[in-house]
Amino acid sequence: MASLGRHIIVEYYDCTPEILNDVTLIQESMEGAAEKAGATIINSTFHHFSPYGVSGVVVIEESHLAIHTWPEFGYASVDLFTCGESVDPWISYQYLKEAFEAGHGSAVELKRGEMALLSKKDFDVKQLRDDKSADDGSPIRTKDVWFTERDDKIALSLKHDGKLYDQQSDFQRVEVYNTQAYGNMLTLDGMVMTTEKDEYVYHEMITHIPLLTHPNPKRALIIGGGDGGTAREMLRHEGLDEVVMVEIDDKVIEACKLHLPSIASALDHPKLKLIVDDGIKYVKEAAAGSFDVVVVDSTDPVGPAEGLFSVEFYKEVYRILSDDGVMITQSESPRFNNKVFKEIYEVYGSIFGNEKVHCYLAYIPTYPTGMWSFSYSAKGNAHPLKGFDSGKSRKFSEVHGLSYYNESIHESAFALPNFVKKMINK
Questions:
Q1: CATH assignment of 3-115+142-146, given 3.40.50.1580, 3.40.50.150, 3.30.70.1280, 3.60.90.10?
Q2: How far apart are CA 313 and CA 309, in angstroms?
Q3: CB 129 within 8 A of CB 46
Q4: Is 151 a catalytic residue?
Q5: Residue extents of the structural domains in the chain
Q6: Of the residues 198, 227, 297, 300, which is catalytic?
């Protein structure tokens, strides 16, 4: 019986999980399947969901191809819909089965729009032309590929032009995407770590506030910070004799040297001692009182960074600080990670004393909710505001052409919203 379209509902089983989680490869495979079947592609849009899963659609002149993948099960669900007889969807079926390295597949074909049940209607067709048409009237082909960091309740999506780096290290999946809005972007296990366009907020705020308020910093330690941004900002301070950086994952360093060179620009600096090792182990073995400033530049409390949020670790950091030493940490989003935020401030207070722990905020567009917190914990009498030399801060910002930090930002960062004050009893 004649019909308007052919609709094949497809399931692929025992596919290679890595293929099903690669949004670029999925997009290329779906477009290849359309072209192999003789279809004309108009548009394609694909999203990667963190930590795994891809959804996408290829719009063709003859209808569409759509997909969603479950890499954790090696499973993909695909719709192949074509109109007319010029495109054979079964060619697309076989193409995708091979592309996904499927163990087996199943498919059911439905006839859509049975002609015997339809009657043609007369209606007034306005003479409109698609704005996105070539000179000959044919549609211009467009392509949209999206990275999505998704939580249970919120998500961030960024359009990108492809993946530049993708390695599974001993600790995490390290990827770099070329995003259209934020330049190259580093992700770890599907979570945004830093981007070229907004990295300066985080790196300037985690370094210059302690180094411009410590009385005489000579030796500094960075735990984590494999992208190199914290080291870059620290090494602007000529009074430092040495910066030690301990990063557990050499793949992070490699990725950033290759694809985020403006952030990783100081990783070969003569004053930087770069150690690829476990930061927790390094701190435990370091001599007491050996560092004036310790910056804990960690990821969220999952994976290799989980131990960096423990009481035992921060007691060791306190031990290795000099008498006037200062510890700075990224302490999560007060709105998004409020449980961790509150718990970690209680830990700092129990070790340093509540009066020695100070919260400050900065605003980073690609981090959950935008609002991000840092903590300033002093072992001695250092204070982020008392005795603050605004003139020195202003000159430093101007000389180094900083993008975010200045003397006014320094002071205002410690002005906390009421809901944050309530959370940490300030």
A1: 3.60.90.10
A2: 7
A3: no
A4: no
A5: 3-115+142-146, 199-424
A6: 297
